Amino acid sequence: MAGGFSGTFxxxxxxxxxxxxxxxxxxxxxxxxxxxxxxTDRGPDSxxxxxxxxxxxxxxxxxxQSDDPQxxxxxLEQALGQALGVQVGxxxxxxxxxxxxxxxxxxxxxxxxxxxxxxxRVMSRGDTLxxxxxxxxxxxxxxxxxxxxxxxxxxxxxxxxxxxxAVTTMGAHPFNTGDDQCLVHNGSLSNHNSLRRKLRREGIxxxxxxxxxxxxxxxxWRMQNGATLGEALQSSxxxxxxxxxxxxGTKDGFGVVRDPIACKPAVxxxxxxxxxxxxxxxALVDLPGIESARVWEPEPATVYFWSHNAAPTTTxxxx
Length: 319
Description:
Elements (H helix, E strand, L loop, with lengths): L9 E10 L8 H11 L7 E7 L6 E7 L3 H5 L2 H9 L4 E5 L2 E7 L3 H11 L4 E6 L2 E7 L2 H7 L9 E9 L12 E4 L2 E9 L2 H10 L9 H14 L4 H11 L2 E8 L3 E6 L8 E4 L3 E5 L15 E3 L5 E6 L2 E7 L3
Helix pairs in contact: 3-4, 6-7, 7-8
């Protein structure tokens, strides 16, 4: 990397899977797990997976984490329910717990959780999104949370090798900065400090000093101001400095963009059943029908976006 760049210099592995064929949805967790484990040597420090699962009408979810789950989660649903004046459901999964709330209450719940126990960290929020991440090998992280048994319409995963920053749960990807939005990243953003200050002034919640979270927060900010995911990714090419490959999830969509230099590896595959992303082709080799898939390397400064509610789009940045 060029001198003068700050932030986290990581060699990482990224995977993503967007299902077009609903019959594959019960296998989403199994397929994503296998893809991520293949990328272990690109990042043995920590791993995380975001799963977009089924939506419950009138309900939303917070996925939270604690280093001391037995103490932190004891009676948590009652305490949170009392603070918010609503019924709260809770399912504990190892060091994580999924809290189910009435729709539209994620902001209030985050504030209430900080009062109840400052050691509880929010991993994700949204109607369909759940994020599970921890320090450790992808195989161990996936096993801990039984990711293979999870179903869903799409998901992204990341395994991290941190070379200049601490290995922590909060430093692991994916990062979630808006309802049902998350991002994984390979690269380094050089203007993340100034952008973090700007986004915080705009009211965007940023938890860590990690440059990837700033990238996620930037996209959240753009989308909160009316941009589609595709438009937000397009504007990132102008506003973010550094080297990056982003894979992004929203409630109904999946997007990919690489910076204009595109020095971070990436490969994609598409069939009638799915769209898949991997840092290397070997992450995709066991997917069904891969031998007849259209396989390509995403172009520099080009936005790729698929949605369950719209036709796929590809947008090239003008020179």
